[in-house]
Amino acid sequence: MVEHSVTDEIESEMDLLKRTIKILSAVKKMQPIGISKLSEELSLEEHKVRYSLRLLEKEKIIEPTAAGARLTEKHDKFEKVLLEDLKNMKETLEELIDTVSER
Q1: Does the pLDDT at position 86 exceed 70?
Q2: What is the dihedral of CA 76, 21, 43, 93, to 10 degrees?
Q3: Backbone φ, ψ for residue 67 (5° rounding)
Q4: How many C-beta neighbours within 10 Å does residue 91 have?
Q5: What is the pTM of this model?
Q6: Exposed/middle/buried for 22, CB within 10 Å: 0-12, 13-18, 19+?
Q7: Burial class (CB in 10 A: 0-12, 13-18, 19+), 42
Q8: How far apart, in Å, are the Cα atoms of 34 and each of 38, 41, 69, 79, 80?
Q9: Which residues pair with 71 in a beta bridge?
């Protein structure tokens, strides 16, 4: 892959977002669930799972329990806002693709 400093940081953030959404989805399906089990189920390194869980915990979307992570009451609202944000990002990406393709 050719490196482009203009997009590298954005791509890295997109990878983090993708991983965090994947983890949130797994927590929703298997709660309560611990870091090791998430890591195993999703084939992700534990430190990456831990980081994404911390981000979700910071936003109060999940909470840690003795049995593992579980969703909080803020999850449903967060998921709706996230979906709208992702749709807006998709539209922006499509516009950028069209702009670059026009050349």
Answers
A1: yes
A2: 160
A3: -90, -10
A4: 10
A5: 0.87
A6: middle
A7: middle
A8: 6, 11, 6, 21, 25
A9: 62
Kindly report the CATH number assigned to the domain that includes residue 55: 1.10.10.10
Query: How many distinct structural domains can be found in the chain?
Result: 1
| Residue 55 half-sphere exposure toward CB, CA atoms < 13 A | 14
Alpha-carbon distances, residue 73 vs 20, 70, 77, 94 (angstroms): 18, 10, 8, 33
Structural domain containing residue 95? 5-101
Give the up-direction half-sphere exposure of residue 94: CA atoms within 13 A in the CB hemisphere.
6
Residue 46, beta-bridge partner list: none
> Tens of pLDDT along 7-26?
888 999 999 999 999 999 99
